[in-house]
Amino acid sequence: MRPIVAAIAREPHGLFELQSLNIQEPTGSEILVRTKASGICHTDLLVRDGVFGPPLPAVAGHEGAGIVEAVGPAVNSIRPGDHVLLTQASCGGCRSCRSAHPMNCEDFVRYNITGDRANGTKPYQEAVSGAFSGQSSFATYMLAYETNGVVLPPDFPLAHAAPLGCGLMTGANSVFRVMAPLAGSSILVIGAGAVGMGAIMAAKIAGCGTIISVDLLSSRRDLAMELGATHVVDGADSDLVKIISDITRGGADFAIDAVGLPATAANMVRALRPGGHGVLLGAAGVGQTVELDLMDLIFNRKIQGAIQGDQVPQVAVPSLISLHMQGLFPFERILQFFPFEAINDAVEGMENGSVVKPVLLFD
């Protein structure tokens, strides 16, 4: 047991409150990480608002990076002193995990969203939910697992590593692994936040010939052009699907909805050419439904979801870091840093659109 400070969500739509807690020591395959940086993702706000994840009060955060301080007796590949990035947790032993799809882990709920550790005990001495996405990174220390810890090069900045844990990885790996577009393909990306920007940069690397970014904010569209988009469209345009069809001469080969609203999901499907492949990445909460004409699906269109780009973290994260170090994946362009104590300012910037990707820094 050791004392920590955590940002706690206590009521829907409320401010995060800094409070002292006591975190348990790692057991089994757990690792204890001193937090150095954490990205903020819209999914964390779903936790804050009581829409998804562990019951309130809760410690959210699922893009943590830091330094390992202690490991459980069953941990083999991670040592104290290692710099690590944390992603979504998985059991490592189910059929999905063993077939290199840990994001589909059959024990997803137990490892990520109950508010308890996978062994059923509480992560904190106090009555506060934690262990969100196997980490709860809005705190000065995190309990995580060997399976969701990725050992980093010691000279790679932890402040840059943190946002690779979810948003950027979700967009990029959905292009690289889930879609795998051929060079010259056309791709539509709805939403130019961290997920969408990750997809745009990955599409450029993959050699897509037409990369269309759709967003409501002109500043986001301008940045998308700088990062690889060949065309931008205002998301408020009522002729959006026709515009995409005109640009691509019949519809996009690939499309991503990084927003996750019924209207954006429907536009993603309708903007695909016959045989096109659409991937839903955004999530606005449970209970969202979309109405589609089945004829929009029947002509060999493929529609799917992709949790965190269907990544194998220990493979996908080093790949993105390599691309970044080669200058091909300049994701630092979308980052804005805030001290941990200013978490509510960071959230406000993300919600009003002035900040694309906030990253919290810890002493």
UniProtKB/TrEMBL annotation:
SMART domains: PKS_ER. Its cofactor is Zn(2+). Keywords: Metal-binding, Oxidoreductase, Zinc. Pfam families: ADH_N, ADH_zinc_N. Residues 14-360 form the Enoyl reductase (ER) domain. GO terms for molecular function: oxidoreductase activity, acting on the CH-OH group of donors, NAD or NADP as acceptor; zinc ion binding. Belongs to the zinc-containing alcohol dehydrogenase family. This is Zn-dependent alcohol dehydrogenase. It comes from Sphingobium indicum (strain DSM 16413 / CCM 7287 / MTCC 6362 / UT26 / NBRC 101211 / UT26S) (Sphingobium japonicum).
